[in-house]
């Protein structure tokens, strides 16, 4: 991980709330918006994504607003890296208050039998297997601080040409719903939000040429989701 929270500007730094949020898929879209908003509200954000440049841009925005982040340029499908991440969070903070799981792999739209096997393998690895692996590692961190895991539904299962993405996203949410039902008494709390359409790179792959003007800005949607999360 890359430490980036040294010497925040004292004149702009918000009051720290002592909370820690891990955001997987933090480099762009809703994940980046949530990471930025959480940092502005006093969380220390552990921002996880593969794209170093996008993480650094996120860090610039966070620091400009007086927040603090630790960058973790890692691939969530690599178990050794995720074990290292979980251990680092445990050693430094003793747990985690919020895990935002915005990481997703979306293959090109294709008739179901024509999905490239490598694309299907990657979809399964990112959208399902990595989700399970992260839940294994992060559940103790979340329980240590009565934390919450936040997932995002995108019901595409069964829609034409969404065979790889729709199937694996539906499987991810089915896994999250099972975890949610199991933990109602002991925690961690599991929340499944359904974001409204936003002008993300992911959506532009699904709907090229779409008029993006009516779409909800990612930061607006992040504010709505966090408001619901705090109720």
From TrEMBL:
- CDD domains, A to Z: SDR_c (cd05233)
Q: Which SUPFAM superfamilies match?
A: NAD(P)-binding Rossmann-fold domains
Return the InterPro entries for the record: NAD(P)-bd_dom_sf, SDR_fam
One GO MF term attached to the UniProt entry: oxidoreductase activity
Give one Pfam family, short name only.
Answer: adh_short
Q: Which residues cross the membrane?
A: none
Matching PANTHER family: DEHYDROGENASE/REDUCTASE SDR FAMILY MEMBER 7B (PTHR44196), SHORT CHAIN DEHYDROGENASE (PTHR44196:SF4)
> What is this protein identified as?
Short-chain dehydrogenase
Organism, by scientific name, is: Paracoccus alkenifer
